[in-house]
Amino acid sequence: MDKKIVDKICSSQNIEYDELESLLECSDDEMDYLAEKAREVSRSVFGNRIYLRGLIEISSHCKNDCYYCGLRRSNHRAERYRLTPEEILDCCETGYGLGFRTFVLQGGEDGYYSDDVMVFIISEIKRRYPQCAVTLSLGERSEESYKKMFDAGADRYLLRHETANEAHYKKMHPENMSLENRKRCLFALRSIGYQTGCGIMVGSPYQNVECIYEDICFMKELKPHMIGIGPFVKQSDTPFGSFENGSVRMTLLLLSVLRLIFPKVLLPATTALGTMDPLGREKGILAGANVLMPNLSPVSVRKKYALYDNKICTGEEAAECSVCLERRVERIGYVIDHGRGDSPVS
Length: 346
Ligand code: SAH
Fold this sequence. Notes:
Elements: H1 2-12, H2 17-23, H3 28-46, E1 49-52, E2 54-59, H4 85-97, E3 102-107, H5 115-128, E4 133-137, H6 143-151, E5 156-158, H7 166-172, H8 179-192, E6 195-202, H9 209-222, E7 226-231, H10 248-261, H11 271-276, H12 280-286, E8 291-292, H13 299-302, H14 318-331, E9 335-337
Parallel strand pairs: 1-8, 1-9, 2-3, 3-4, 4-5, 5-6, 6-7
The structure holds S-adenosyl-L-homocysteine.
């Protein structure tokens, strides 16, 4: 029965509310069919190649107070650190040697990384590694700031919208943050010329089918190059610390649905998915994901970038992570692509 729905999503690259509602309750058989279709679509666009992004977690300082995130300002148990430009460049050097051609600089909203500091870091990375892409994930900044960093050479920007439902957004964030501003940032990034990524946490507190439907509608409007989704994982020292974790199954299901609706989108199998299930990232790829983001941060800071509890890969050196992932990918019949892995969409 639901197989018809899957075929329809696939051919129309669209989903109706009722179809989403019914898919979210599908059987394991139907879920297998959905994943198979998503895998076919992913293979037709990307072959069996998986893109790598080296994630550098540049700062655990944050001026925001999001209720789900371990880096929130009010979390007095968080250990704070920030990497200097030199340390960031060292991570890139290690990463380049390991074959990474995209560096993702992610962090809390930390005033230390002014436009001037970012412009210096970005230009220096691009000067040393002109063939590499630089992705930023530094939260909300002014349009002018995004423009300066783009002009300095930044190629991509990840800013999950977290939820496209007003009421849900308010339940996850304090008064001073707004969905309107989040969306404004995303449209600005896109119009400046960044390959732009939005996304959500699956199973975040108070999320319901309507929220997810609105997320998909918002994505259709934004036309992102990338969509980052992973399960919500509780962080004990946050206001959401005693909520249930998001489910792996629902994350896999949504990865497949997104692959069918957005055939060419870059879709990572996230660390959060790998945290919730030892084979989560492999399952993500088999559900239609085509990107992995191994950690390139110095091992000394990894435990301090505690967005959520029990995050994986906090002990391994970058080299170990990259060998480990390469093997994991090959075991399921895929290969790592060592190119920049740009979006196939203009
Ligand atoms: N300050 C940047 C980067 C935030 S960390 C920004 O605002 O974009 C990157 C992503 O981690 C967030 O967008 C959020 O979706 C995810 N994240 C934060 N807390 C999480 C949690 N408890 N479980 C799962 N993912 C989480």
